[in-house]
Write a structure and sequence with these properties.
This protein has 205 residues and is α/β, with parallel strands linked by helices. It has six helices and ten strands, in the order αβαβαββββββααββα. The chain has a domain of 140 residues: Rossmann fold (3-Layer(aba) Sandwich), CATH 3.40.50. Helix content is 33%, strand content 20%. A six-stranded mixed β-sheet has the order 2-7-1-8-9-10. It has a two-stranded antiparallel sheet with strand order 3-6. It has a two-stranded antiparallel sheet with strand order 4-5. Strand 9 and strand 10 form a beta hairpin. The longest helix has 17 residues.
């Protein structure tokens, strides 16, 4: 089962949420598959831009990137202008040359914290990768290898603190579950609690 085509069609039909842009959040635990899902969803959306929150975080500020996101991305897009943000290089440990992010009809924001309290008012839709924390972290450690073990040792308690004080899943419009043949996208806690949503069960989600 692969719900991506129907999800993409439904997202295009949403009203803009940030100036002319439909800003779509993809959140979940580290290692849950957010990056791959966002890439595949972007392809279904004819190459929609994807902002990776890893580009805004740093070693010293794993979750304290809201100011950079607002100033460099949200404010320009809300005025219909092209955003320019400076991505962080995790190897060089410094910010690098600016990148442009145009005010496309749909822009995907992907990363841990994409559904945070400060960003939700700007989102047209929030998707949560519905994979458990322990399984996600195990996948992430296996993906990154033993060389990143110390980073993961610090990341996990930081993620626990973040979601403990600013949870995203309760506010998700849809839950994404990865299967052998694609993705199943199910109604999330917010959509279940609020029946008057733009995307409903009738849209096949």
């Amino acid at each position: 089962m692969n719900d991506l085509p129907s999800v993409a069609a439904a997202l295009r039909a949403l009203p803009p949420s940030c100036g002319p842009v439909r800003l779509i959040g993809v959140d979940g635990h580290a290692g849950s598959g957010k990056s791959t899902f966002a890439t595949r969803l972007a392809a279904e959306l004819d190459g929609a831009p994807v902002l990776r929150l890893d580009d805004l975080a740093t070693h010293e500020e794993l979750f304290e990137w809201t100011g950079r996101l607002t100033e460099q991305v949200i404010d320009p897009l809300s005025h219909g202008a092209t955003a320019r943000y400076t991505p962080y290089d995790w190897t060089l440990r410094r910010f690098t040359a600016p990148r442009s992010l145009p005010p496309s009809p749909v822009v995907i924001v992907e990363g841990v914290g994409a559904g945070r309290r400060a960003l939700r008012p700007c989102l047209a839709w929030l998707l949560w990768m519905d994979r458990g924390a322990e399984e996600s972290w195990r996948r992430g450690r296996e993906r990154d290898g033993p060389g990143q073990s110390a980073f993961w040792d610090g990341w996990i308690p930081a993620e626990i603190r973040h979601f403990g004080s600013d949870p995203s899943r309760p506010f998700a419009d849809a839950l994404v579950r990865e299967g052998c043949e694609g993705y199943a996208v199910l109604p999330g806690p917010l959509m279940t609690a609020s029946p008057d949503q733009a995307i409903t069960h009738r849209d096949g989600l």
